[in-house]
Amino acid sequence: MPRSRINGNFIDKTFSIVANILLRIIPTTSGEKEAFTYYRDGNYAEALQNYYEAMRLEIDPYDRSYILYNIGLIHTRNGEHTKALEYYFRALERNPFLPQALNNMAVICHYAIRQGDSEIAEAWFDQAAEYWKQAIALTPGNYIEAQNWLKITRRFE
C-alpha cells in the first residue's frame, strides 16, 4: 500500500512529518531507525525483526528501554497483551521514567476488564489505577482522561 494511502488523514500526515524529522535528528542506530520506519508504515513483522536485532547490538540500558518499549507497542497493536506487558516491564526495569509504558500497561489492564470475569474486574481496575498513578506522577500534566477516570472511580488521592 502506498504511503500516501496509509497517511490519508491530517493526524497521520502530521505524525509522519514529525516522525521523519525526529528520525533525522535523534541519535539512533540505523537499525533502530529502520525498525521505526517499518513500524510507522504498519509492517510490524519487519519492525519486530529490526528491533530484535537492535536489542542484540545495543548495550546502553536507556536505549534498550526504548527498544523494549517499542517491541511492547507492536505486541499491543497485534493484540498480544501478555507479551506486551512483559516488554513494558522489561523496559521499566532499565528505565523507570517511561510514563508511556505505565500508561499502556494501565490501558491493557483496563481492556482486560471488558474481556474477563466480573469477579476479578476490581483487581484489574486497581492494577490499572496503580499504573496510571505512577504515569501521572512522572508527568503530572498528561493522561487527563486517566486522571478523570481515577477521580470518578475514587482511586485518585
Automatic annotation (TrEMBL):
<dbReference type="Pfam" id="PF00515">
    <property type="entry name" value="TPR_1"/>
</dbReference>
<dbReference type="InterPro" id="IPR022818">
    <property type="entry name" value="PSI_Ycf3_assembly"/>
</dbReference>
<feature type="repeat" description="TPR">
    <location>
        <begin position="65"/>
        <end position="98"/>
    </location>
</feature>
<keyword id="KW-0802">TPR repeat</keyword>
<dbReference type="InterPro" id="IPR019734">
    <property type="entry name" value="TPR_rpt"/>
</dbReference>
<dbReference type="GO" id="GO:0016020">
    <property type="term" value="C:membrane"/>
</dbReference>
<dbReference type="InterPro" id="IPR051685">
    <property type="entry name" value="Ycf3/AcsC/BcsC/TPR_MFPF"/>
</dbReference>
<keyword id="KW-0677">Repeat</keyword>
<protein>
    <recommendedName>
        <fullName>Photosystem I assembly protein Ycf3</fullName>
    </recommendedName>
</protein>
